[in-house]
C-alpha cells in the first residue's frame, strides 16, 4: 500500500524478532500501560501489528541504550527499545549500586561533556522524580610529574591541594589520605556518585513516558536493509 511504498523509498531497517517466550515483557512498575505486558504477555504482543515502523530502534537496554531511547523519544522520534534479558538484569555493565562521575580527564574534550551532562542529569531527575546522583567533590592523586595527571587536573579545573603552600589551611581530608612523596593531590567540584541500576530504570521510565515502546526478553538476531 502507499504507506508501505513510502517507507521502502528510504533506507529502512527491519527488526527481526525472535525468542519471544510467553509473558516476555517485564512489567516494570514505572512503565506506562502501552509498554507493559501481563501474564498474557504474548497476547499483548500478538495484538500488535506483526511489523511496525519506528524511527529509532535501540538494541540493548543498558545505560547507553536507555539514555539513547529517552533522548530520541524526547525529540519526537518513534522509538523501540529492545533488551535480550529482563530489564535491569545483572548480566551487562550497567547494573549495581554505584558508579562515579568526574571531570578530570587528560583528554580535553571530556570535561565540557561532563559539565553538560550534569545539567542533563539534573533535568532527568527533575522530570522523573528519581534521585540517582549525589554530587561530591572529587579527589585525584597522582605523580607530580605525570603528564596525564597534570592534564587531568588542568582540564578539570581542579584545585591543587598538595603539595600545599606552607601557610595553606590543612584540608579536611588530610587525616584520611597520605600523599606519597613526589605525588600531588587535587580536588574538583564536578565529582559524583551515581546509583547505577536506578539510573537505568530512570531513563527507561522517561523513555516510556515520552512514548517509547520498551520490550525485554527480545533478542535482536538480524538486521536487514529493506529494498530501497
Ligand atoms: C565494575 C565496573 C565499574 C565501572 N565503573 C564505572 C564508573 O565508576 N564510572 C563510569 O562512568 N563507568 C564505569 N563503568 C563503565 C560503565 O558501567 C559502562 O561503560 C556502561 O555501563 C556501559 O553501558 P552499555 O549500555 O553500553 O552496556 P551494557 O550495560 O552492557 O548494556 C548492553 C545491553 O545490550 C543488551 N544486548 C546486547 N546484545 C543484544 C541483542 N542482540 N538484542 C537485545 N539486547 C542486546 C545486553 O543484554 C545489555 O543489557 C564501570 C563498569 C564496570 C563493569
UniProtKB/TrEMBL annotation:
Q: Mind telling me which InterPro entries this protein's record contains?
A: FAD-dep_OxRdtase (IPR006076), FAD/NAD-bd_sf (IPR036188), MTOX (IPR045170)
**From which organism does this entry originate?**
Aegilops tauschii subsp. strangulata (Goatgrass)
Q: What is this protein called?
A: FAD dependent oxidoreductase domain-containing protein
Record has Oxidoreductase as a keyword: yes
The keyword ATP-binding appears for this protein? no
Q: Which Pfam families match?
A: DAO
Q: Name one GO molecular function term.
A: flavin adenine dinucleotide binding
Enumerate the spans annotated as FAD dependent oxidoreductase domain.
55-226
Q: What are the names of the required cofactors?
A: FAD
Gene3D superfamilies per the UniProt record, alphabetical: D-Amino Acid Oxidase, subunit A, domain 2, FAD/NAD(P)-binding domain
Give the lineage.
Eukaryota, Viridiplantae, Streptophyta, Embryophyta, Tracheophyta
Amino acid at each position: 500500500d502507499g504507506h508501505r511504498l513510502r517507507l521502502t523509498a528510504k533506507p529502512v531497517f527491519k527488526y527481526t524478532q525472535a525468542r519471544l517466550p510467553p509473558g516476555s515483557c517485564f512489567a516494570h512498575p514505572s512503565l506506562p500501560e502501552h509498554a507493559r505486558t501481563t501474564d498474557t504477555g504474548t497476547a499483548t504482543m500478538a495484538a500488535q501489528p506483526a511489523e511496525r515502523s519506528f524511527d529509532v530502534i535501540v538494541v540493548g537496554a543498558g545505560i547507553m541504550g536507555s539514555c539513547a531511547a529517552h533522548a530520541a523519544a524526547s525529540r519526537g522520534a518513534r522509538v523501540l527499545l529492545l533488551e535480550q534479558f529482563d530489564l535491569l538484569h545483572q548480566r551487562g555493565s550497567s547494573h549495581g549500586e554505584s558508579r562515579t562521575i568526574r571531570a578530570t580527564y587528560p583528554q580535553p574534550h571530556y570535561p565540557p561533556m561532563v559539565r553538560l551532562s550534569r545539567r542533563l542529569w539534573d533535568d532527568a531527575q527533575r522530570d522523573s522524580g528519581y534521585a540517582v546522583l549525589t554530587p561530591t567533590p572529587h579527589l585525584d592523586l597522582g605523580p607530580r610529574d605525570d603528564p596525564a595527571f597534570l592534564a587531568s587536573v588542568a582540564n578539570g579545573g581542579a584545585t591543587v591541594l598538595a603539595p600545599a603552600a606552607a601557610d595553606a589551611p590543612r584540608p579536611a581530608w588530610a587525616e584520611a589520605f597520605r600523599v606519597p612523596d613526589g605525588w600531588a593531590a587535587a580536588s574538583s567540584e564536578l565529582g559524583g556518585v551515581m546509583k547505577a541500576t536506578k539510573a537505568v530504570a530512570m531513563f527507561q521510565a522517561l523513555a516510556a513516558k515520552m512514548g517509547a515502546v520498551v520490550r525485554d526478553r527480545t533478542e535482536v538476531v538480524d538486521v536487514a536493509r529493506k529494498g530501497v
